[in-house]
Design a protein that fits this description.
It is a single chain. This protein has 529 residues and is mainly alpha-helical. The chain has three domains: 19-220, MFS general substrate transporter like domains (Growth Hormone, Chain: A); 226-276, no CATH class; 279-529, Up-down Bundle (Growth Hormone, Chain: A). The protein has 18 helices and no strands. It has helices spanning 32-48, 57-64, 73-85, 89-96, 98-118, 122-149, 156-184, 189-192, 194-208, 221-240, 250-272, 280-283, 286-315, 321-345, 351-369, 379-405, 412-450, 471-507. α5 runs antiparallel to α9 (194-208), α7 (156-184) packs antiparallel against α14 and α10 (221-240) packs antiparallel against α11.
């Protein structure tokens, strides 16, 4: 759309073309503030449920009559169903209407949350969690698309800042809220808390939410089947790999083969097939591809950290669930502060350098974590979390803005679904890999440390004569072994922090592949154009 604004400065070296004028809404609405509130309520409710149930698993196990292995299917079913449903969000939104899909997704999510809270058997819980995961898969991409559509490009940075705060803070607050509800009320309130929030959200969306025009886009059944089967088997393999000792198990070998084959066939179909699931022009977009790759790293840093830190703080340092949540809360404060800064700076400087700065700060925070020890106080945890939050916030907003800046508006829902899927896959893969690495390194470190426990290394106790002291000697040996276990676990956690730091550092050059559209910032561009 042409604009009569004053001429801009001379164009820079091959900037990417911005597709929409600076003051054009894709979908103008009344009461934009209320609609934004409703969208964010749905987003936070959905993202909280990815982590809020984790702390309630032991209580769910006894109540539902499950074992320690089978109760984890309450988490797996949610993740698998969500991974399968995310890719079809764009097609379904065009087919039934984005308004209808969003409202019905929130309705189903709310009802399934109520059913999860009322479940009496593990079978019921797995079924209701799967339904909840399918509806949650639609909420994430649609919420991002709605905020992009109801704001002009000049206001989308602020909108993405608001959306990003919910996405980034949700996983941090989930374990805190889940632990508080479980300890003070009942594990069922972990799910039932969604019901009143969902009812208010549904009412606001039904009143205010507009809809995009429907289309008759053909459904790629073969492509979806391959992608869904590949993602589902990969998610099951990642979830069960640690329990079954990975590729020493026939089940894991079969799941790995199926996942690899299906995803490979899907990739070939996307390149050469007719009517592929996603428009090839979208996947040829340089910014979108680079953003998808780096979003995997965001999933590693954000979700893997949140998976490793709570058990470390509770088991090795003896903090309660609530205290652990309070120690992790500064990460959320850092995210809030840095997202506010990023929202102001992203249009005034080259966003790539803003993201490189944020990724570097995140790397520094992980390096700080490699220096932790069992003798430290709570301050290093708070400082490292705050620094990491600042870094993540500086990356997330510019990354989303750059991903969509050169993407046609009709591709926004598909793009948002792929970004959400990439972040989820990064989280799933990294958590499985780092958990396996943690278990392996605990064994290696324990063997190494135990080899140094001799009568000369323990001045007050000779382990070779412990049996002479009966129960007292046994207790002393148990105490020594427990301390060796603690030290070995701490060494293993530090090894995981090193691995995360190296991955984050190696991914920083990806940010320089992004191309900055005209008008997005005034700083000269010299890299990656």
């Amino acid at each position: 759309m042409a604009s009569r604004a004053t001429p801009a400065a001379a164009p820079e070296a091959r900037p990417a073309k911005s597709l929409v004028g600076p003051n054009v809404h894709a979908m103008p609405v009344r009461h934009k503030g209320l609609l934004t509130l409703a969208v964010m309520m749905a987003t936070i409710m959905q993202i909280l449920d990815t982590t809020i149930a984790n702390v309630a698993l032991p209580h769910m196990q006894s109540s539902l009559g499950a074992t320690a292995d089978t109760v984890t299917w309450a988490l797996t079913s949610y993740l698998v169903a969500s991974a399968i449903a995310i890719p079809i969000t764009g097609w379904l939104a065009e087919r039934v209407g984005s308004r209808n899909l969003f409202i019905w997704a929130v309705i189903v999510f709310t009802v399934s949350s109520m059913l999860c809270g009322a479940a009496t058997t593990l079978t019921e819980m797995v079924l209701f969690r799967a339904i909840q995961g399918i509806s949650a898969a639609f909420i994430g991409p649609l919420s991002q698309t709605v905020l992009m559509d109801i704001n002009p490009p000049s206001g989308q940075t602020k909108a993405m800042s608001i959306w990003g705060m919910g996405i980034m803070i949700g996983p941090i607050m989930g374990p805190v809220l889940g632990g508080w509800l479980t300890e003070n009320y009942d594990w069922r309130w972990v799910f039932l808390v969604n019901v009143p929030v969902g009812i208010v959200t549904i009412a606001l969306l039904a009143w205010l939410l507009p809809s995009r025009a429907r289309t008759t886009r053909k459904f790629d059944l073969f492509g979806f089947s391959m992608l869904a089967l590949g993602l589902a088997t990969m998610q099951i393999m990642l979830d069960r790999g640690t329990q079954l000792d990975w590729f020493s198990s026939p089940e894991i070998l079969i799941e790995g083969a199926v996942a690899t084959s299906c995803l490979w066939v899907f990739a070939l179909h996307m390149i050469w097939g007719r009517n592929p699931m996603f428009d090839r022009a979208m996947l040829a977009n340089r910014n979108m591809v680079a953003a998808l790759l780096f979003m995997l790293v965001v999933g590693v840093v954000m979700f893997a950290s949140m998976a490793l830190l709570p058990p470390m703080l509770q088991q090795l340092f003896g903090y309660s669930v609530l205290d652990t949540g309070l120690l992790l809360a500064p990460r959320g404060f850092g995210i809030l502060v840095s997202m506010g800064i990023a929202g102001r700076l992203v249009t005034r400087m080259d966003p790539r350098w803003l993201m490189v700065t944020g990724a570097t700060i995140s790397t520094v925070s992980l390096w700080m974590m490699t220096g932790w020890s069992l003798g430290m106080s709570w301050q290093p945890v708070v400082v490292a979390g705050l620094v990491q939050g600042v870094g993540m916030g500086l990356v997330f907003i510019p990354l989303n803005m750059m991903a969509f800046a050169t993407l046609e508006p009709r591709h926004r829902t598909d793009g948002a679904s792929l970004l959400n899927l990439s972040r989820s896959l990064g989280a799933s893969i990294s958590i499985s890999v780092l958990t396996t690495l943690l278990s392996f390194n605990i064994q290696v470190s324990h063997a190494d440390l135990a080899s140094h426990v001799t009568d000369t290394s323990l001045s007050a106790f000779d382990p070779t004569t412990a049996e002479k002291f009966g129960a007292l000697g046994d207790a002393a040996m148990l105490a020594v072994n427990a301390e060796i276990n603690r030290q070995a676990a701490m060494v293993a956690y530090i090894d995981d922090f090193w691995a995360m730091m190296l991955v984050n550092l190696a991914a920083i050059p990806l940010l320089l592949l992004l191309r900055r559209p005209q008008g997005m910032a005034s700083a000269p561009v010299h890299v990656g154009e």
